[in-house]
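Retry 2 of 3 after timeout on previous attempt. Resubmitting structure tokens to design endpoint.
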């Protein structure tokens, strides 16, 4: 069994300052054996992390579609932002990637997927975040888990980390897999979710980081 987290941000995201070496060190300390780096609208951080990490790193991207955010996993190339939700999932699938829906019911975030977009892409969805540690209310996680149960879609537990402090608090415990998307989904089918929420005040730090980086031109 391995501990895994499929939603992590690094300094390549506009709202995170997490250095890649710090992320790797924190993962090792927390006993994570697999992560997905899912920076906003880029795969650079994921590619760089995969080059330096001694564990499995899935190349991911949290893509801003015209209907809200959608995560692609097992990507080979960056997915362009501002496509329609359907175009976004089609672009992910065209690379042989998996579609994950991040924090689908957290109404306190900007760019959360809209109800209409969610209904449109659900037939193409491979994973739903059943627990996102940054969700403001736990009712959002319960709604996500119920939707996944109704539709027969596997769930994950993720930190949505933007800071080293968050890494390793929440994780998905799953069987080791062969590195392929199909093997990943088979292993995820009977995974266990280790769910530990972080304080909602963590979003204030994220906003501060985003403003500071913008002012510094980073």
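Retry 2 succeeded. Sequence:
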């Amino acid at each position: 069994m391995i501990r895994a987290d499929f939603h992590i941000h690094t300094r390549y995201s506009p709202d995170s300052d997490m250095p890649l070496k710090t992320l790797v060190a924190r993962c090792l300390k927390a006993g994570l054996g697999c992560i997905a780096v899912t920076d906003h609208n880029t795969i650079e951080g994921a590619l760089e992390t995969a080059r330096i990490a001694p564990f499995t790193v899935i190349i991911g991207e949290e893509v801003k579609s015209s209907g809200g955010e959608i995560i692609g996993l097992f990507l080979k190339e960056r997915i362009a932002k501002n496509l329609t939700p359907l175009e976004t999932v089609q672009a992910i699938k065209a690379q042989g990637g998996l579609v994950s829906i991040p924090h689908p019911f957290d109404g306190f975030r900007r760019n959360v997927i809209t109800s209409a977009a969610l209904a449109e892409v659900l037939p193409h969805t491979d994973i739903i975040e059943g627990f996102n540690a940054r969700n403001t209310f736990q009712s959002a996680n319960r709604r996500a888990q119920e939707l996944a149960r109704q539709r027969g879609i596997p769930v994950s537990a993720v930190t949505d980390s933007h800071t080293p402090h968050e890494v390793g608090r929440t994780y998905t415990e799953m069987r080791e897999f062969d590195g392929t998307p199909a093997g990943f989904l088979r292993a995820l089918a009977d995974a266990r979710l280790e769910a530990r929420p972080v304080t909602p005040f963590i979003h204030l730090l994220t906003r501060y980081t985003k403003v500071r980086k913008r002012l510094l031109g980073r």
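Attempt log closed. The chain has one domain: 2-216.
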